[in-house]
Amino acid sequence: MLPLVMTTNVLGLVPASIPSPPPEWASFSLGPLTVHVYALCILSGIVAALFITQRRLSARGAGNGVVLDIIMWAVPIGIVGARFYHVFTHLGDYFYPDANLWLVFAIWDGGNALYGSLLGGAVGAYIGCRRHNIRFWSFADAVAPALLVAQSLGRIGNYFNHELFGLPTTLPWGLEILPTDTMFPDGLPAGTLFHPLFLYEIIWNLTGFAVLLLLERRLALRWGRTLGLYLVWYGLGRSWLEAIRIDPTSDGFLGIPANIWASFAAIAVGTIIFIIQGRRHPETEKSIFRVEPALATSDTDPAAEASPRKFGTDTHILRP
């Protein structure tokens, strides 16, 4: 729960603003190591997505641990994609006379673009699915709602980094940014409050998580259509948030920030996936496996044949 500064009016106590955490809360020392809260938030999101996806995929026939095998490919490539996209859309922040080019790799200071992580993560997930006999579309459907939970946890890291805020506001949940903060916009008076976009996105994402689960139950979404709806949902919310964002935003084209173009692309791609996959596969998905695992047989122990056990992506028969 975020702290709220309280003031008194004729109606009693009402929330007046959301204070930003002190800068020193953004990291702490653990022996010789410096631990960044932003990194912990990202890590917690990855762990949450792992458990949610494994549970969903196991319910469809996958063996225990297969999701961990897949994300071992998806996460590293996704992180590389996230950082590459961020740097590419913020070139002026990293490439200028006397710039410290090592900051290009300083992912712990923030600047890991979600759309870049989706592109890189999709490549990694495809590789992992191929290696572990899981249909890519089946994995994509299982992970889509989990991504919204992971993104919500990651946005808490933006709060500690004093980033992802929007236009000035007088609403009681306005976010405080100290005038001495490097993120504070020029030309605004001290005490100005801002829309807490990180909080808006958390609410939007968690609402989307519930909506996707509900639609899955009612429409029996498979073959990538849950992923398609995820892209549409996230793209719609993100395009609005980016439109009112004023902390350092991405470079743009035709006066429109790159993240808004990426959001439009996400909506378009999600819509195409939902329509095309629905036409190509009107039937309910019968198996999540690319190739059906073969059953081993035993000529010596009929009782063992009656006791199949799933392990990884293969189905084995217990033998004495």
TrEMBL record:
<comment type="function">
    <text>Catalyzes the transfer of the diacylglyceryl group from phosphatidylglycerol to the sulfhydryl group of the N-terminal cysteine of a prolipoprotein, the first step in the formation of mature lipoproteins.</text>
</comment>
<feature type="transmembrane region" description="Helical">
    <location>
        <begin position="105"/>
        <end position="129"/>
    </location>
</feature>
<feature type="transmembrane region" description="Helical">
    <location>
        <begin position="193"/>
        <end position="215"/>
    </location>
</feature>
<feature type="transmembrane region" description="Helical">
    <location>
        <begin position="258"/>
        <end position="276"/>
    </location>
</feature>
<dbReference type="InterPro" id="IPR001640">
    <property type="entry name" value="Lgt"/>
</dbReference>
<feature type="binding site">
    <location>
        <position position="155"/>
    </location>
    <ligand>
        <name>a 1,2-diacyl-sn-glycero-3-phospho-(1'-sn-glycerol)</name>
    </ligand>
</feature>
<comment type="similarity">
    <text>Belongs to the Lgt family.</text>
</comment>
<keyword id="KW-0472">Membrane</keyword>
<feature type="transmembrane region" description="Helical">
    <location>
        <begin position="65"/>
        <end position="85"/>
    </location>
</feature>
<dbReference type="GO" id="GO:0005886">
    <property type="term" value="C:plasma membrane"/>
</dbReference>
<feature type="compositionally biased region" description="Basic and acidic residues">
    <location>
        <begin position="307"/>
        <end position="320"/>
    </location>
</feature>
<feature type="transmembrane region" description="Helical">
    <location>
        <begin position="227"/>
        <end position="246"/>
    </location>
</feature>
<dbReference type="GO" id="GO:0042158">
    <property type="term" value="P:lipoprotein biosynthetic process"/>
</dbReference>
<dbReference type="Pfam" id="PF01790">
    <property type="entry name" value="LGT"/>
</dbReference>
<protein>
    <recommendedName>
        <fullName>Phosphatidylglycerol--prolipoprotein diacylglyceryl transferase</fullName>
        <ecNumber>2.5.1.145</ecNumber>
    </recommendedName>
</protein>
<dbReference type="GO" id="GO:0008961">
    <property type="term" value="F:phosphatidylglycerol-prolipoprotein diacylglyceryl transferase activity"/>
</dbReference>
<keyword id="KW-0812">Transmembrane</keyword>
<keyword id="KW-0449">Lipoprotein</keyword>
<keyword id="KW-1133">Transmembrane helix</keyword>
<feature type="transmembrane region" description="Helical">
    <location>
        <begin position="136"/>
        <end position="154"/>
    </location>
</feature>
<feature type="transmembrane region" description="Helical">
    <location>
        <begin position="35"/>
        <end position="53"/>
    </location>
</feature>
<comment type="pathway">
    <text>Protein modification; lipoprotein biosynthesis (diacylglyceryl transfer).</text>
</comment>
<keyword id="KW-0808">Transferase</keyword>
<feature type="region of interest" description="Disordered">
    <location>
        <begin position="299"/>
        <end position="320"/>
    </location>
</feature>
<keyword id="KW-1003">Cell membrane</keyword>
